[in-house]
TrEMBL record:
Organism for this UniProt entry: Daucus carota subsp. sativus
CDD domains found in the cross-reference section: Enpp (cd16018)
UniProt-recorded Gene Ontology molecular function terms: hydrolase activity
Name the UniProt record assigns to this protein: Uncharacterized protein
Keywords, comma-separated and alphabetical: Membrane, Transmembrane, Transmembrane helix
Comp. bias intervals (Low complexity): 31-41
Keyword Signal: no
Transmembrane segments: 51-73
Keyword Transmembrane helix tagged: yes
InterPro entries xrefs: Alkaline_phosphatase_core_sf, Phosphodiest/P_Trfase
Gene Ontology, cellular component aspect: vacuole
Region (Disordered): 1-45
Coiled coil ranges: none
Length: 489
């Protein structure tokens, strides 16, 4: 058994109502200077019985149609409808496929801006003829691979979908989660492939964290659910996805995933500013070209809604930017076995009998004393006292003490052998370097449009909206899709 049952957030109709009425919110305000988006507090109490939710959903859909009609005829400006730059007003009809299809592509560690590092004609074709998040997609905290990939497909913050780190320990059972753990008890929430199958539709996954977990309606059938194998050439992954379009139109999966480990691997080795990264980006671009060519040959390129994202960005790190926990010894000893993760997410669970609040105070006393090397670049919190915009406390899987380090710094136990400079991610998602890309291309995306940056927990609602299916409760905002997608014809 996993520790506590983690409550799922309720549908975000409260936020919806707030958006519509501009009323003041009871939920905590976001305070970061970098982030201007609005998110729903996970603490909103359930507000309406299910039937009312469904009614409101229907009314909201109708209201959205009216809103778009109004925008079309009035050309008024509105903060919540940033698509006014669009030249296209309605979605484009399908020409060959019989139903909407979403192909969700992840290029791991594709930092926002990489798309401009080198000529990337294929990615830029998607951008020019599609919709891009102008200043990038905002990952969830911690800006790590598994928490973010699972947020993208569930619409939930990690505290609610349960994957709070790439590795973590369940304190109540002593069991450990790793990236190879496929037991459903770890993976909470409803990923989009499960939502799709629940609606009697077909989904196919070519690698995605959580996709191999047999849970609910999702059985991970062998022909539609590839088991992760990092040695499969990227070209083979593209070709396999292309083959799904050889099926009779009604049998083509409505939702597909495609995953590439690059440029993350290179980014860790050499940091974000290196010729090897440029090569990795060019390689991803050529794979996107292979995909586009294949879809064009099959006559479906303009019919498929391609969503290309990354999970997080990347920042350069060097050994001079280190903070050693052993340097805190004059204030408090932090034994190794208290530390569940060092960097960039410092996660500490003190032994029984120690007060977490006391540990936090003593650590911060030391870090702020001016006597600890780079101490001012680490701040330690009780998890309940972390900035609310991080949404990182409502799970027993999150240890009681969390440290936030400044961009590019790393925490280690003690002075060790020197390492070469490289790259890392996992930092505060307010850092611009942690941002990644969002590009949407296809019938539901306006051409040549840029939308304001948004958090990746909004993508689940985007996908269900394109597929015309109802989604599970999540942290995204129900009104969000209409700010990015073209309305149905
Ligand atoms: Zn990653």
């Amino acid at each position: 058994m996993v520790s506590n049952p983690i409550p799922l957030p309720k549908l975000t109709l409260l936020q919806e109502q707030e958006d519509e009425s501009n009323s003041t919110s009871n939920s905590p305000k976001q305070t970061t200077s970098l982030l201007s988006f609005s998110t729903t507090s996970p603490h909103n109490p359930p507000s309406k019985p299910t039937i009312l939710l469904i009614s409101l959903l229907f009314l909201t859909t109708a209201a959205a149609a009216f809103a778009f009609a109004f925008l079309f005829f009035s050309s008024s400006s509105s903060k919540s409808h940033p698509r006014l730059h669009s030249n296209t007003q309605f979605s484009r009809p399908l020409t060959k496929l019989r139903h909407p299809v979403v192909l969700l592509i992840s290029s791991d560690g594709f930092r926002f801006g990489y798309q401009y590092k080198t000529p990337a004609p294929n990615i830029n074709r998607l951008i020019q003829d599609g919709t891009q998040a102008k200043l990038g997609l905002i990952p969830v905290f911690p800006t790590l691979t598994f928490p973010n990939h699972y947020s993208i497909v569930t619409g939930l913050y990690p505290a609610y979908h349960g994957i709070v780190n790439n590795f973590f320990r369940d304190f109540s059972t002593g069991e450990s989660f790793s990236m190879a753990s496929h037991e459903p008890k770890w993976w909470l929430g409803e990923p989009v492939w499960e939502t799709v199958v629940k609606h009697g539709l077909k989904a196919a996954t070519y690698f995605w964290p959580g996709s191999e977990v047999v849970k609910g309606a999702w059985t991970c059938p062998l022909s539609l659910c590839a088991h992760y194998n990092g040695s499969v050439p990227f070209e083979d992954r593209v070709d396999k996805v292309l083959r799904y379009f050889d099926e009779p139109s009604e049998d083509v999966p409505v939702f597909m995933t495609l995953y590439f480990e690059e440029p993350d691997h290179q980014g860790h080795k050499v940091g974000p500013d290196d010729p090897q990264i440029t090569e990795a980006v060019a390689r991803i671009d050529s794979l996107i070209g292979r995909l586009i060519d294949g879809l064009e040959r099959k006559g479906v390129f303009e019919d498929v809604n391609i969503i290309m994202v990354g999970d997080h960005g990347m920042v350069g790190t060097c050994d001079s930017k280190l903070i050693f926990l052993d340097d805190l010894a004059p204030w408090i000893d932090i034994p190794k076995d208290w530390v569940q993760d060092y960097s960039p997410l410092l996660a500490i669970r003190p032994s029984h009998g120690y007060s977490a609040a006391d540990v936090v105070k003593k650590m911060n006393d030391g870090l702020g004393s001016g006597k600890v090397n780079n101490g001012k670049y680490l701040k330690v919190y009780l998890k309940e006292e972390l900035p609310s915009r991080l949404h990182y406390h409502a799970s027993d899987r999150i240890p009681p003490i969390i440290g936030l380090v400044e961009e590019g710094y790393k925490v280690e136990q003690k002075v060790s052998r020197r390492k070469e400079c490289g790259g890392a991610h996992g930092y505060d998602n307010a850092f611009f370097s942690m941002r990644t890309i969002f590009i949407g291309h296809g019938p539901r995306f306006a051409k040549g449009v840029e939308v304001p940056s948004f958090e990746n927990i909004q993508i689940y609602n985007l996908i269900t909206s394109i597929l015309n299916i109802s989604g599970a409760p999540n942290n995204g905002t129900l009104s969000f899709p209409k700010t990015v997608l073209l309305p149905h014809l």
